[in-house]
Design brief:
Blueprint lengths: L24 E5 L14 H4 L14 H13 L4 E5 L9 H8 L6 E6 L4 H11 L3 E5 L5 H8 L5 H13 L6 E6 L8 H8 L5 E6 L17 H11 L2 E3 L10 E5 L5 E5 L12 E4 L4 E3 L8 E2 H6 L4 H14 L4 H4 L2 H4 L6 H4 L2
Parallel strand pairs: 1-2, 1-10, 2-3, 3-4, 4-5, 5-6, 6-9
Antiparallel strand pairs: 7-8, 8-9, 10-11, 11-12
Helix pairs in contact: 2-3, 2-10, 3-4, 4-6
The structure holds S-adenosylmethionine and iron/sulfur cluster.
């Protein structure tokens, strides 16, 4: 496993974009489907019966994902994160992990809602997965069931986290999206629950990704406010980032019992350090979470392009990249036709 803290010292020459940001991380969406309907991501009014998900032949095969990841690794990527939609819904996911694990010096991680992790943690770990991030927005069962809009209970996600811990997919990161008036009053409890366990809770400011979730700024709880609330009960001190491009601001408990993270993409955007490329389930290369379109890598894969030709195409996109939507967010950008998070891979 590669130590993420050493990512600035890797030997592959960095590919820089127009703002000098190196390409280091790849997020691959392995499916656009999900078994939850989190209202901030896939509201059932839009993603309910009748919504057309991608047909099987439009989704990248495991071979195609592996080819792309190998090419990205050759361009300096040192960490791949499997995401979606819900990645554990993709049939035979451990087989893909095993194929990716053949690529040298690559850290393999996954973001999941945890619903299937209890049974999948072991096969994934055995195939070569290094760590997982599990999304869990509240420990309050009624609130969690309502937020995932599938009546899915907290205890099954906690069992998935326990399975991840037991199989060494650690430290587990726990992602919680914060919505004012929905779950924010339960988040000190979430922090307290994982304090001292070695797991790292990361609070994510509710973002205006996509166009279907009815996002409103007044539902965003600024990270500084959340820190104050947690600090009042469990004193915290700020930590330095462990590597360039780390998305979360890190805070440690003063009593030495662990740390939490804050992902402040609304109130304190971190575009200047963004080292991430994203590939959608349909093989589009997207360079910003708030992007409006992608570059079609699937067409290149399927027309028989060589690895070098694929690398050249990716180089062309990355070196032209100058996105910094979160820093420019304003009235003028509000109505842009953004891609949905479930398609992009969060
Ligand atoms: C799109 S999900 C995909 C992986 C998996 N289904 C999961 O939920 O962990 C990835 C992450 O994006 C987060 N997310 C989705 N919509 C969001 C929004 N509008 N604002 C902030 N985070 C969001 C989710 O909470 C999750 O942690
Ligand atoms: S956040 Fe994850 S679990 Fe929730 S609807 Fe989106 S893809 Fe599914």
């Amino acid at each position: 496993m590669t130590d993420p803290t050493t990512l600035d010292h890797v030997d592959a020459p960095a590919l820089l974009d127009r703002l000098g940001r190196p390409l280091r991380d790849l997020r691959v969406s392995v499916t656009d489907r999900c078994n939850f309907r989190c209202r901030y991501c896939m509201p059932r009014e839009v993603f309910g019966p009748g919504f057309e998900f991608l047909p099987r032949d439009e989704i990248l095969s495991f071979e195609e994902i592996t080819t792309l990841t190998r090419v990205f690794a050759g361009l300096g990527v040192r960490k791949v994160r499997l995401t979606g939609g819900e990645p554990t819904l993709r049939a035979q996911l451990p087989r893909l992990v095993g194929m990716l694990a053949e690529i040298p010096d690559l850290d393999i991680t996954m973001t999941t809602n945890g619903s299937l992790l209890k049974s999948m943690a072991r096969p994934l770990a055995e195939a070569g997965l290094d760590r997982v991030t599990v999304s869990l927005d509240s420990l309050d069962d009624a609130i969690f069931r309502s937020m995932n809009d599938m009546d899915f209970p907290v205890h099954l996600v906690l069992e998935g986290i326990a399975a991840a811990e037991a199989t060494g997919l650690t430290p587990v990161k726990i992602n919680a999206v914060v919505r004012r008036g929905v779950n924010d009053h339960t988040l000190v409890d979430l922090a307290r629950h994982f304090k001292g366990t070695g797991h790292i809770v990361r609070f994510i400011e509710y973002m205006d990704v996509g166009t279907t979730n009815g996002w409103r700024l007044d539902e965003v709880v600024p990270a500084t406010e959340l820190i104050e609330r947690i600090h009042a009960e469990m004193p915290l001190r700020p930590l330095e980032p462990s590597y360039r491009g780390e998305v979360a601001q890190r805070w440690a408990y003063e009593d030495g019992s662990g740390e939490i993270g804050l992902i402040t993409s609304v109130t304190q955007p971190f575009c200047g350090d963004c080292t991430r490329a994203r590939v959608t389930a349909a093989g589009e290369l997207v360079t910003c979470l708030f992007g409006t379109h992608g570059f079609d890598l699937r067409a290149r894969l399927r027309d028989g392009s060589s690895d070098e030709a694929l690398a050249e195409a990716i180089r062309g996109v990355w070196t032209q990249r100058d996105d910094r939507y979160s820093e420019l967010r304003s009235e003028a950008t509000r109505d842009l036709p953004r891609l949905e998070m479930s398609r992009l891979g969060g």
